[in-house]
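tool_log.txt
---
The assistant was asked to compare two proteins side by side. It first ran the structure predictor on the initial sequence, then on the second. Raw inputs and outputs are pasted verbatim so the downstream comparison step can read them without reformatting.
(1)
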Amino acid sequence: MRINPTPSSPAVSTLEEQNLGRIAQIIGPVLDVVFPPGKMPNIYNALVVKGRDTIGQQINVTCEVQQLLGNNRVRAVAMSATDGLMRGMEVIDTGAPLS
C-alpha cells in the first residue's frame, strides 16, 4: 500500500522546511556551501550531502559547519571521504549539531 503525502501531512511540511544549499567548492575534506539569503546554518550544525556520483554510486556524506564566510556561504568539514562529490550537489542543513 502506498500513501501519497497531502499538504497537511507531516512529511510534506518537513520537506518544505528543509534548509537546502548547494556545494560551491570542494578542497579535500573542506566544502564551501551556498545557502539562500536568511537561511544560513549555525556553526557546528550537521550538513548532509546525499546523491549519486558520476557512475551512479550512492553518496551520503555528513559535514560539520566550521565557519560562516559571508555572502551566504559556509565552510564545512566532511566526516568521511569526499570522493564523488561535485559542485552544485544539494546539501541539507539538519538544524542540529552532530550527535
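(2)
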Amino acid sequence: MPLKRLPSFPFPQTKSRATSRDTTALNSKPFKCAVIGGGPSGYFAAIHVSEKLEEYGISHEVDILEGTGKTLQKVRISGGGRCNLLPDTELDLRDNILKCYPRGERELYGPMMRHKPSEILDWFNSRGVETKTEADGRTFPVTDSSQTVIDCLVSSLTPSISVHLKTPITSISKNEDGTYALQTPSGTSTFSSIVFATGSSRSGYTLLQNLNHTLIPPLPSLFTLNSDLIKTGPFSTLSGVSLPHVLCTFNSNSSEITTRGPLLFTHVGLSGPCVLKMSSYAARTLHSLKYETTLTLNFVPGTDSLKLLNEYKTLNPKRKIRGPTPECFKDHSIPKRLWLKLLDNIEIQDKIYAELSKKDLLKISNVLEEFKLHVKGKNTNKDEFVTCGGVDLKEVNFKNMESKVQRGCFVVGECLDVDAVTGGYNFLNCWVGGKVAGKGVADYALENYKG
C-alpha cells in the first residue's frame, strides 16, 4: 500500500510558486523523491529538491520519512535550546571554517565555495530569522530560541512536500528501471530517487550498507572527558571554574594534537570548547585508548611564566604566595581557587615570594604551563551530539551529493564520514549538503525522468 499523502504540518499557500500539481509541468506523472530522515539536512534537502524541481517545471512529490514521532530534534536541543545555527560566516573559508572539520575538510571545499556560509545565512535571514554572532564566533537567532529556526524550516516546505512521522524504513531495494522500493510498516512505495539524511542512526547505516556502501565505523565525537582528580580527588572543589584561554595538548604514538580555547571544570572532569575540539580531532585515537590518557594543559599560553614570576617576586617580595593569583597572569583569568589547587599539587607551602627558591619558581612555572591531567572516560556533550564515521567519502560525488555506488541515491549530513568541532559547523555541513543535493536530485530528474 503506498504512503498516504497526509502532511503532518499545515503548509503555507504560495501564489507566486507553481506546485507539483501544475498542469503546465513537463511531466504528467510526478517525479517522486524520498528524503529519509527528518533532521536539519533532511529538511533542507527536501526544500531545495522541491524548489529546484519547480524551477525546472517538473511535476513532483517529495516525502520526508521520519522513523520517530518528532522531526528536527537536533535543531531543537542545539546550543542548549538556542540553536547554534552557523559559525561566524565572515571567517575565511579555507583558513578558518574548513579547518574545523577533522573529517571532510577537503571534500567540503567545493560545495562551500559554490554555496558560501554567508549565502546560507542570507537564506535564513530572508525568511525571517534574524541572527547575531557572539564573541566566541557562534551564530544564533536573536530570539535565542531554536523554535525560530524550526518554524522557518517548516514554513519553507512547499505544497509538494509531505512529512510522515513514525515511518521507519525497514528495507530498500533497487528496481530494474532504476527506481527504489522502500518498505515501511504500512507497505511498499516506489521512488525515482532517494536522499539519505539519517544522521548517525544505526538503521540508516544498515540501509546504506545494504545498498553496497562502505561504512567507516561510527564513533563518538564532541564529548567531555572525566578525571578522578576532579571527580573525587583534590580538584573536586573546582566544579564550575572556567578559564578563557587554555592550551590543551594530547600526544599519541602517531601525532600530537593541540587545541586552544575556553576550559570548564565540571563535577566529573573537563568540558568547554578547548576539550570538545580535542575530542573531535582525536576521536579515533581516544577511542583506541578506551578514553584513558594524559592531557597537558597550559593555563598561560603565549607567556614566559618563569620570567613573569621572577619579576613579580622582585616587585612583591613580602606578598604571600598563597593569596590571589599574581597580577602578572591577569590576562589569563586564573581563579584563586585553581591557583591554590595548583600550588597544593606541587606542595608549595605558605611562603612570601622572597622565600621562594629558584626550584620553587620553576615548579610553579611548570604546573602553569605543563599541568599533566590523567583522564579516564567520557560524557556526551549535552548541547551537540556528534559522531565521526559514516559513508566513505570516496563513494560520494560532492558536486551533487550523489552516491557513486547507486545512481539516484544521494547522501547528506552526518550519515557521511564528515564531522566538525562545536560552534555551528556541523549544521553548516547539513545546510550546504542539503542545498547541493537539492540541485543534484533535480538535475538527475531532468536527465533521467521520463514521466
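---
observation on (2): The domain at 31-219+385-448 is CATH 3.50.50.60 (FAD/NAD(P)-binding domain). The mean pLDDT is 93.
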